Description:
The protein contains 7 helices and 9 strands, in the order H-E-H-E-H-E-E-E-H-E-E-E-H-E-H-H. By secondary structure, the protein is α/β, with parallel strands linked by helices.
Amino acid sequence: xxxxxxxxxxxxxxxxxxxxxxxxxxxxxxxxxxxxxxxxxxxxxxxxxxxxxxxxxxxxxxxxxxxxxxxxxxxxxxxxxxxxxxxxxxxxxxxxxxxxxxxxxxxxxxxxxxxxxxxxxxxxxxxxxxxxxxxxxxxxxxxxxxxxxxxxxxxxxxxxxxxxxxxxxxxxxxxxxxxxxxxxxxxxxxxxxxxxxxxxxxxxxxxxxxxxxxxxxxxxxxxxxxxxxxxxxxxxxxxxxxxxxxxxxxxxxxxxxxxxxxxxxxxxxxxxxxxxxxxxxxxxxxxxxxxxxxxxxxxxxxxxxxxxxxxxxx
Length: 314
């Protein structure tokens, strides 16, 4: 891992590490979204303490800037537990445990940003505007039968923020996707894509608009290309979704984003690279992403230029 981060630095790439799995070689296991699975609390804190201890050196790992605490904790809840103890189980309150993890990391590496993803849609079925009796966030609002992506729901962060001992180091990071990943009800709405900005404001944008904390969209993406229909027309919804997201991300209240993904073997989204053999780029995606604000990141060599030769003696 250390070598990967240093290789990325040589290429001028910033790195945010994200904890996806708690079990070694668990790449094919489902993410159940819970915090307590596989002795989760102790395992997560132990893993992040090791990372913070071994990779805090600001010269060797200058490009490692953030710790994304837990990928898509969609089965956890945000804010005080609801009245049903069978649903809102002890140890699954994400905003409090995120603070515990963040403070543990900062005890060893105070320079890192602490990145906190959102929760899910509903703690128990049935879901939907009328059907969710156990919402995933306190005072959660449901509008127009809008469903939530795993990790997207940050509605509880305005009332119950993650309280770090270094409060200026917390960043909230929703994940959100378009129709090519899954056909959510909001993509079938008559107002689509004009309804998207309002949904994104509700789920996470207001945290930044109200100047409570920065928003870094940790994952967004999709196929982007039009899909042929049987009648000879084309389904352009994923393209429309992408263009709406680029416009939303271009507004000044969003701190930045990570597009999913670079590699070509993601079945849900495809990649910026078409295939590993040619390494050809999907130029339609590249062209779209060029509309986003960017920041130049130096390489390691540029960060540490060689010392000039000594001046010759007279």
